Structure to design on (869 residues):
């Protein structure tokens, strides 16, 4: 058994009386496509916030490979390959798509602090950024300002930004949120086409999409993990049906 | 021992003045996160309304003081409806620019209408002079300020804790989105709170004339103190503003009495250190 | 220069087009020589404008590009002014070394305070910058033995520049000197804005919370630009001390901090020429109305501020940029 690329151990977090993460234990093996599902308020986004360092857990630890990253700053986790996207677009409105992704590339390469050399001398970074945009079919829109892009294109730019950091583990918070169903297929196809070296965990509400693209599924309810398993196991588990049909109050 | 208690008392009285000047800003900042640098312009308006009513129209002091409250509240609510509300979604830079602009305009208008000299004020004779209690001298006007400050603080706390309106304000300060979700008309609540807060500033401005004088520079001179009180006390906290105002008032008066060569140096240093230790202020939740 | 160039075909060409000097820019810098010919009696005003423009440029780097609101930037202008003045009094009157010393002193204090500035946002940040401004002002006021306090620093005497160009009464040397410094710093700032670091700064301005999620250490970026900006502000202050041979508390007070924000916002924050344009308009207007009571001067300034915020976001240059963008989209 190899070490999982990302794991949490007894992760707990509460806001006052409200418990948003309860003894979370997960272990993601390399290259797996995980779906994280659960009703609204189950703590899915909170879990991503905890793992990426946007929130500090009250107790527990987070391991990236063999390294304990519990106390690292968010940007230090990104540097180590743990990267996320946001459910609500969090982009750079006045930068062009190419500039945004180039910025992420430059940050990854450690060139961003350089102020005495001009951007045009970083042609490879721009080419790489353009390549990423093109791979997500944003090539024709690379020079447009982010705020001018259509909503679906902005969702793709979210992913492009994360790819520019060369992630080992990618946490996608509802990548298709707000995207019409016919477009979300293409978006997930793009995600499915990513390198097998990247371990992916995505939050998604559309069960068709979840069963199609996830190799394993984690179900969360009120801050805790209800169960984890293959799509077949999850589909046939009565507790999952209860959570979704009977409300979260029974467990 | 004598001077110490005297200095403490004077400082506390000065602190109560700062409390009146700043509590409104603290609550409105807590509700809307709107950085209103024109707050002391409303205070200055209250001051000029008072001296005009008294010196030009011959009103008595206690009749003029409430009008300072009314005038500042009325003008502020008009500005809130016409200008401020359009920028609630904007960043703090826009807030700062708009309200500095308004403060600038108020300074120029005050200078144009009233000149740049200090305005004289004739407080009632029974508020003048001082009394001698247990070995220390207490200025009657300062004692009066302390009483007003305590009264206003008590009134505010009671309003916030025990009235329906107060509950709405607390809900809006606590979590604006939740409050809206509960069907509270946050905009209207805010407009009223804003008017009340500015009115209190106007009252403070009127009461301040006797202690610190009144000229067009008031809008900026005391803004700094008010901002210090608000940020040290914590946004949206009446108790925080009260404690911070008392602290700042006492340290300012004591500092100027014991180490005059340092000037206001100590106040700024205390503020920076305090904010580094607790960026959300002494009593702030965020 | 943010305009999207439609003809850019390659990513590389696109970046190059963004960094290119436009004819308008070159014309602008050539026009900076006009005062020598057209307004030789106004050279001391031109000198003041160049110095103020440099100060506004320094603020633009943090406010316009990195989105950090500072209401205490005069602290560093003042530190530079006092440093240059004191240097000439106690070390020697050589201007260039004195100016470098001014920039270093301001940059050093800026670096120390950058750790505070990088930690905070919103109201707390505004309070911190205000607090730093007032603190430095109080120190300058209290250290009478060194700064002359409210009497101002007297006895600043400068040697000729390069031991040749005397500071003359009409301001030929002063304006040439200030313009040269402004131009050099401008070119460097322009390089900085078009560098990877400049792009990172715009990223911070556009979305500071996203930056960590692409692996950026925003605080380190902010510390760096704040230090650079404060050093430039120090240069501007140093220039003022050297060319006027006196330093007053006015070089360090809140008024100066507020003025420079007004100029920058009027001209257009986030445009390299915004601060320069704002400084020109502001200083010329103030010179024209210098006869009136200084407190009345607040009125047009206040109205301008309100108007810019309500109707002209991005200032004059921001408005022009929108106009040209609209024109490009539907060329009639």
């Amino acid at each position: 058994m190899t070490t999982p690329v990302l794991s949490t151990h007894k992760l707990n977090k509460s806001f006052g009386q409200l418990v948003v993460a309860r003894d979370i234990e997960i272990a993601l093996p390399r290259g797996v496509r995980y779906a994280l599902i659960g009703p609204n308020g189950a703590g899915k986004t909170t879990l991503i916030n905890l793992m990426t360092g946007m929130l500090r857990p009250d107790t527990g630890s987070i391991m990236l490979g063999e390294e304990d990253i519990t106390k690292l700053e968010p940007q230090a986790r990104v540097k180590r390959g743990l990267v996320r996207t946001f459910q609500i677009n969090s982009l750079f409105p006045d930068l062009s798509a190419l500039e945004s992704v180039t910025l992420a590339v430059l940050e990854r390469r450690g060139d961003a602090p350089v102020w005495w050399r001009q951007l045009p001398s970083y042609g490879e970074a721009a080419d790489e950024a353009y390549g990423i945009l093109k791979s997500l079919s944003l090539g024709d829109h690379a020079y447009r300002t982010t705020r001018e892009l259509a909503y679906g294109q902005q969702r793709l730019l979210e992913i492009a930004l994360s790819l520019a950091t060369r992630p080992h583990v990618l946490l996608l918070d509802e990548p298709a949120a707000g995207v019409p169903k016919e477009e979300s297929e293409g978006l997930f196809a793009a995600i499915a086409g990513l390198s097998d070296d990247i371990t992916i965990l995505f939050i998604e509400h559309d069960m068709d999409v979840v069963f199609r693209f996830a190799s394993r599924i984690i179900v969360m309810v009120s801050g805790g993990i209800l169960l984890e398993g293959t799509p077949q196991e999850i589909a046939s588990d009565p507790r999952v049906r209860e959570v979704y049909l009977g409300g979260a109050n029974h467990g | 021992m004598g001077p110490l208690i005297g200095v403490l008392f004077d400082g506390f009285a000065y602190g109560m003045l700062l409390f009146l000047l700043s509590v409104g800003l603290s609550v409105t900042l807590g509700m809307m996160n709107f950085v209103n640098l024109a707050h002391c312009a409303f205070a200055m308006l209250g001051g000029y309304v008072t001296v005009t009513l008294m010196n030009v129209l011959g009103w008595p002091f206690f009749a003029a003081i409430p009008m300072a409250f009314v005038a500042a509240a009325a003008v502020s609510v008009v500005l809130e409806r016409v200008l401020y509300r359009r920028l609630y979604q904007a960043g703090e830079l826009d807030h700062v620019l708009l309200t500095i602009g308004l403060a600038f305009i108020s300074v120029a208008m005050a200078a144009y209408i009233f000149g740049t000299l200090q305005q004289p004020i004739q407080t009632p004779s029974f508020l003048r002079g001082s009394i001698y209690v247990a070995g220390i001298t207490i200025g009657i006007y300062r004692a009066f300020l302390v009483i007003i400050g305590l009264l206003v603080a008590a009134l505010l706390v009671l309003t916030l804790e025990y009235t329906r309106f107060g509950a709405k304000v607390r809900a809006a300060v606590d979590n604006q989105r939740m409050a809206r979700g509960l069907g509270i008309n946050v905009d209207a609540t805010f407009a009223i709170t804003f008017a009340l807060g500015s009115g209190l500033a106007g009252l403070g401005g009127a009461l301040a004339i006797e202690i610190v004088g009144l000229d067009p520079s008031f809008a900026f001179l005391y803004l700094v103190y008010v901002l210090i009180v608000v940020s040290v006390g914590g946004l949206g906290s009446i108790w925080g503003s009260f404690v911070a105002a008392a602290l700042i008032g006492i340290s300012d008066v004591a500092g100027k009495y014991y180490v005059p060569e340092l000037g206001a140096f100590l106040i700024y240093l205390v503020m920076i250190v305090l904010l580094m230790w607790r960026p959300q202020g002494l009593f702030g939740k965020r | 220069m943010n305009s999207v160039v439609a003809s850019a075909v390659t990513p590389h060409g696109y970046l190059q087009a963004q960094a290119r000097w436009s004819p308008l820019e070159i014309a602008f810098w050539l026009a900076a020589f006009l005062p020598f010919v057209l307004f030789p009696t106004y050279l001391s005003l031109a000198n003041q404008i160049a110095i103020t423009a440099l100060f506004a440029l320094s603020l633009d780097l943090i406010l316009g590009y990195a989105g950090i609101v500072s209401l205490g930037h005069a602290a560093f202008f003042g530190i530079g002014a006092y440093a240059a003045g004191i240097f000439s009094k106690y070390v020697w009157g050589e201007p260039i070394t004195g100016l470098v010393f001014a920039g270093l002193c301001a940059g050093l204090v800026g670096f120390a305070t950058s750790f505070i500035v990088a930690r905070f946002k919103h109201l707390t940040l505004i309070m911190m910058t205000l607090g730093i401004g007032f603190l430095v002002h109080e120190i300058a006021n209290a250290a009478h033995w060194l700064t002359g306090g409210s009497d101002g620093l007297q006895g600043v005497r400068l040697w000729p520049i390069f031991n040749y160009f005397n500071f003359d009464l009409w301001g030929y040397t002063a304006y040439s000197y200030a313009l040269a410094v402004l131009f050099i710093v401008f070119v460097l700032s322009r390089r900085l804005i078009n560098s990877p670091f400049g792009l990172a700064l715009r990223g911070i301005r556009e979305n500071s919370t996203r930056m960590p999620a692409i692996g950026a250490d925003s605080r380190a970026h902010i510390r760096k630009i704040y230090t650079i900006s404060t050093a430039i502000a120090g240069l501007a202050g140093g220039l003022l001390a050297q060319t006027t041979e006196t330093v007053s508390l006015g070089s360090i007070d809140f008024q100066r901090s507020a003025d420079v924000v007004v100029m920058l916002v009027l001209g257009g924050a986030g445009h390299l020429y915004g601060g320069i344009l704002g400084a020109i308009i502001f200083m010329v207007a103030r010179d024209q109305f210098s006869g009136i009571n200084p407190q009345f001067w607040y009125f047009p300034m206040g109205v301008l501020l309100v108007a810019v915020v309500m109707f002209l976001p991005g200032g004059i240059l921001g408005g022009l940029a929108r106009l040209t963008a609209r024109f490009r989209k539907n060329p009639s």
